[in-house]
Amino acid sequence: MVKITNIPRETASADQMKILTLTSDMGLNDHYVASLKASILKRDPSVYILDVSHTIIPFDTAQAAFVLKSCFSEFPDGTVHVVAVDSEPIVNFGGHDGSFPCIMEYNNQFIISNDNGFYGAFIGEGTADAFWRIDDILSNPKLFKFPSKNMLIPAAIDLLNGKEISSFCSPQTGFRKAFMSLPKVEENLILGHIFYLDSYGNAITNIDQKLFEQVGKNNPYIIYFRKKDYYLDVISNSYNEVPPGERVGIFNENNLLEIAINRGANLGGGGAEKLFGLKKGDQVRIEFLPRGSKETLHELF
After folding, report:
1. Distance (Å, rounded) from C-alpha 99 to C-alpha 115?
2. Per-domain residue ranges for the chain?
3. What's the pLDDT score for residue 2?
4. How far is CA 161 from CA 46, 134, 207, 255, 293, in A?
5. DSSP code string of 234-284
6. CATH hierarchy code of domain 2-175
7. What is the pLDDT of residues 22-48, one digit of tens each?
């Protein structure tokens, strides 16, 4: 359990544009997203709805956290984010305290989700401004049939319309930690893995630029992925630094190491995911070579 200190903040004022984002694992083939949006507009037609993603892997709260965090800073103050992933509350399941719909205040924005590990994955080493549990959830069992619509959306509309958060929520001292697999570090070595594959087939790893620079100390390196035949010894600043169809490694906008094929999806190959056979969980190994330790590239293999 991550403990925080609640800091009172004002909710979004009524004269602001009412922005509500949706992140879900509901997909786009069924009626669920339409039902969710209709319930928003039925309560308040003036709400501006933005979709972050509806193709989160079912119940994958870590993926939901990554996707929302990747664009969170672009939104203005007062934005309300609804994360409809694994939304059904758990009441004393398995002997623990359960999980309940909550609201996190963070950088003048609000995130509404079930406290199922999402918040721990989202906040990482950061600090929330305040954390609240939505009240009066257990008194109406009918709400459990579509909790994203019946529990999370009403709270979002209340926030957007300036309702005082303390009138329908109770402050909490912390939220659930999420298990996040971090890279392993040894002398001159980083062992990470692919944790996300985007729609271009780009493979995003859990290795960030800060760690890379700390361990690497400006030494030459080899990045291995999938098989020994697949490696990189240069990290580029952009995709187009290599010709179309060539492998490329970059630190993306989130400062995470990304393995891609320049215009691979456009060439019909499905990007690095398909052409290299990469999948979520695959290991990525970076070996740093103190200068003078190897004389030729062939000595690395």
Report:
1. 5
2. 2-175, 184-300
3. 58
4. 10, 16, 40, 36, 64
5. --BSSGGGS-TT-EEEEE-TTSEEEEEETTTTTTTS-HHHHHTT--TT-EE
6. 3.40.50.10790
7. 999 999 999 999 999 999 999 999 999
pLDDT tens digits, 73-117? 999 999 999 999 998 887 764 545 678 999 999 999 999 999 999
Fill in the amino acid letter for 121: A
pLDDT given at position 81:
98
The fold of 184-300 is Elongation Factor Tu (Ef-tu); domain 3 (2.40.30)
Phi, psi angle pair for 149, to nearest 5°: -80, -40
Q: What is the pLDDT of residue 271?
A: 81
Distance CA 37, CA 225 (A): 41
Measured torsion, CA atoms of residues 265, 270, 272, 278, in degrees rounded to the nearest 10: 160
Question: What pTM was computed for the model?
Answer: 0.82
Residue ranges of alpha helices (H) inside 72-152 are 118-123, 147
Burial of 123 (0-12, 13-18, 19+ CB in 10 A): buried
Structure tokens at 102: 């909550």
- Residue 79, token pair as written in the block: 């934005």
